[in-house]
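If you are new to this repository, start here. Below is one unmodified record pulled from the training split, so you can see the exact layout before writing a loader.
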Amino acid sequence: MKAKRTAALGLAAVMAASLLSGCGAGGSKSAKTEITIYQSKIEANEGYKKAIAAYEESHPDVKINLEAVTGNDFAASLKAKMQSDPPTIFSVGGFQDLKDYGDILEDISDLEVLKNALPGTTDMFTKDGKVLAVPLYMEGYGFVVNRQMFEDAGVDFESMMTFEGMKAGFDTLKAKIDSGEMKEKYPNLEAVMEYPTKELWIAGDHDVNVALTHDFDTAKAAYDSATLPGTGFADYKTMVDFQASYTTNADNTANLNSVDYTASLEGGLAIERVASIKQGNWIAPAVETTDPEVLAKLDMLPYSVPGYSDGKYFVGVSGYWAINSKVTDEQKAAAKDFINWLYKDPAGQKIVVEDCKFVPPYDNFGDLKAGDPLSQRIMDANEAGDTMNGWVYSGAPNTWGQQAAGVEVQKYLAGQATWDEVTESSIKQWASMRESQK
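And here is the target side for that same chain:
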């Protein structure tokens, strides 16, 4: 009896083991591949949620988790995330990220959609011939104007595509504001422009970019340079002076250092207090929230510098995704497939443009139109080749654009520095900051 019982128990154990083994094999086949996206473009989160839902519906074997942290806090939060719960896909934005995470960036050179990437859009995250991050969206800046307002003043929008044409148009509108001719239709209108130099990135990063493009073709070239030749600072001065001269503080430019982004946008352009600000397509959602009717009147003029960048918009990629090389092969495959779907499948492309409100850095989006006139203008400029590199400043020493160039412009506007001193100090600080950041 004991022998029979032992044999029976042994058989039961074998059957149980076999059953468990079978369940394990079946479970692994039916289990979903789960990936996590950790991203910094908080404005696009609802669009991403829509994309994920659509993708999961057609790919039931994949589960995608989405986490978003605002850009101001993202760098620190990503470092913490990598220590506790590393994501599959994560946002990267510049050379510091390449330095910090270079050892875990998956080589995605074989990503299908990269065949359609616009020239130069993968350069920042290409190392030793390997593409290590996929470009997500482009942004562009120039002079955002209330086109209807200028046309009501008798100025043809197309006549302002050069610096001289823009200056003539701005002068015409200024004269009509000063004479009171615009008051009845635009009771809030005070000035042609606002120039919020309290925001160091406006007079720093963006305006100094024109100077840097004289010396460097790319952000990488700037990043690799220990010194700044400074050959473009005369053009930098031209654009600073131009903007300041059309504000209500033209006769006391020190006051511009107290004007912030909100005053220029939600409290300026969006309520028709001013007719123009130097900004990019990213302002469209804020204008739409304030007054959708004003957004419909807007358009964007190029960042025209006389004899240098007439008719050109400053454009560049400002967001990338990388894939974590430490995750499983199944997760890598799912991550790549989702990115390819997002930028190659018509359903994904529609969400990218209409819901995420991105200007795609790819040439395969056909006739898809942007959801706002500013993004459409940048898409058209890309197609026509009417662009210059708007992100050369991202290759400057860390914080140089704002804490060196931006601060020096504030001193200039306040009458505390000559332009020669602005130039000399900015050049010296480039060298010292580059040396200290080695």
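Two things worth knowing about this chain: The chain has two domains: 33-138+316-372, 140-314+391-436. The two ends are 81 Å apart (CA to CA).
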